[in-house]
């Protein structure tokens, strides 16, 4: 029988996940809520869903997805808590919001905490999962199967691991986009036409990711395959070494991790 998913919030990330589910022909029907309605209406048109116009009448649902911003959770929880029950399964995509907080604010037990990333929009995303202990084995399996149809799912046994991986899979696309921006801008500054520079860098990053996915070689080996002693790549990588690129990346990732821990404590 077709199961039902009700999403509170239809921003960028909820759109990516719900369209991913819909495009992978998950046996689900969708009900969508946003305070302003605009985004719920536009997503409902894409996924043949219903729009929930008021939180006074919340239909029963197999899955309730919490997709607002973390700071909007408390307000939402006040409106929906009394309409949820102990069998309700919550899927939360809120960064830095712990299962304990969700259980307390929503008065529920069964929670799947998800850390998604934006490449979900193109069917190449990563979803990290952490389940509260009350979610049964079969419920876990079903959720893993649903999300695996449109993304790579990694399940963690400890919630602390979610704080650890957030700065990698969640934030990772931003680091690569920043690198992409720097490469493109430099190319343009050297006189290469903007459109050509943009496309060449996009394809270079895409091709490198594809090569790595299709290969069993380590990152180091793949890097060596492009690098001959005293050649062009070698010169650039030597500058990375001299400027301690490794240390910079290390510090950035530590800062991301610390922020993740801080947010979990606040939420
Ligand atoms: N973007 C990422 O890369 C990323 C990665 C991992 C996790 N996340 C998490 O994903 C969540 C959503 O992020 P986003 O980038 O998709 O945000 P977003 O585009 O700003 O969307 C937020 C949505 O929440 C709705 N909303 C606001 N107040 C609400 C309330 N009281 N009740 C129900 N819905 C409410 C908004 O409705 P209106 O349309 O009416 O304003 C909007 O549709 C965040 O918690 C974030 O931590 C994001």
CATH first level of the largest domain: which class? Answer: Alpha Beta
Distance between the termini: 36 Å
Helix content: 40-55%
Order of helices and strands: EHEHEEHEHEEHEHHHHHH
Largest sheet: 8 strands, mixed
Strand proportion, as a percent range, falls in 5-15%
Textual characterization of the structure:
- The protein is of the alpha/beta class.
- The chain folds into two domains: 3-165, NAD(P)-binding Rossmann-like Domain (Rossmann fold); 172-264, ProC C-terminal domain-like (ProC C-terminal domain-like fold).
- The chain contains eleven helices and eight strands.
- The protein has helices at 12-23, 38-47, 73-80, 99-106, 137-148, 159-170, 172-189, 194-214, 219-224, 232-242, 245-266; strands at 3-8, 28-33, 50-51, 63-66, 89-92, 110-115, 125-131, 151-155.
- Strands 3-2-1-4-5-6-7-8 form an eight-stranded mixed β-sheet, sandwiched between helices.
- Helix 6 packs across helix 11 (245-266) and helix 7 packs across helix 8 (194-214).
- The structure holds NADP nicotinamide-adenine-dinucleotide phosphate (NAP).
- NADP nicotinamide-adenine-dinucleotide phosphate is lined by residues 8-14, 33-36, 39, 67-70, 72, 75-76, 93-95, 115-118, 170.
């Amino acid at each position: 029988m077709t199961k039902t998913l009700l999403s509170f919030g239809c921003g960028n990330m909820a759109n990516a996940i719900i369209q991913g589910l819909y495009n992978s022909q998950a046996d689900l029907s969708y009900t969508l809520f946003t305070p302003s309605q605009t985004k719920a209406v536009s997503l409902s048109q894409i996924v043949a869903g219903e729009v929930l116009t008021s939180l006074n009448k919340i239909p029963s649902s197999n899955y309730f997805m919490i997709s607002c911003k973390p700071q909007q959770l408390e307000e939402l929880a006040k409106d929906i808590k009394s309409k949820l029950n102990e069998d309700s399964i919550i899927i939360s995509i809120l960064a830095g919001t712990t299962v304990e907080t969700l259980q307390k604010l929503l008065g529920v037990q069964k929670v799947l905490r998800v850390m998604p990333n934006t490449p979900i929009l193109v069917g190449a995303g990563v979803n990290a999962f952490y389940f509260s202990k009350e979610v049964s084995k079969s419920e876990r399996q079903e959720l893993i199967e649903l999300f695996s149809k449109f993304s790579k799912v990694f399940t963690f046994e400890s919630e602390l691991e979610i704080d650890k991986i957030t700065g990698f899979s969640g934030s990772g696309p931003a680091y690569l986009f920043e690198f992409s921006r720097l490469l493109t801008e430099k190319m343009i500054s050297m006189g290469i036409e903007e459109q050509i520079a943009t496309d060449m860098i996009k394809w270079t990053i895409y091709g490198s990711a594809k090569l790595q996915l299709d290969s069993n070689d380590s990152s180091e080996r793949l890097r060596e395959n492009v690098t001959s002693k005293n050649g062009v790549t070698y010169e650039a990588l030597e500058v990375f070494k001299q400027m301690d690129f490794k240390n910079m990346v290390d510090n950035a990732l530590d800062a991301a991790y610390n922020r993740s821990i801080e947010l979990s404590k606040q939420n």
